[in-house]
Fold this sequence. Notes:
Layout: H1 13-36, E1 41-43, H2 44-51, H3 55-64, E2 70-72, E3 75-79, H4 80-88
Antiparallel strand pairs: 1-3, 2-3
Amino acid sequence: MTNSAIQLMQIDIESFGQFIQKLVREELEKVIPAQSEEKEFYTREETSKLLNVSLTTLFHWNNQGVLKAKKIGKRVYYSKSDVMAQLTY
Length: 89
């Protein structure tokens, strides 16, 4: 059995607030970098999964002007803003 002791300390409200802010900031720093690395462009596969449509549908949408693709080299990408606009449509 471990011997654990509870230690009580008196602390003013300002110091306690700063302690809580420090803990919250540390936790947020763990989450925020993952969010800031969000992409500006999605591949065809990522776009089809986000919109829950087939790659053929994306091809037809591109031809019809519903969701325009952008080519970088031989690869096809869709802009994040266009995909999000289609999601809210």
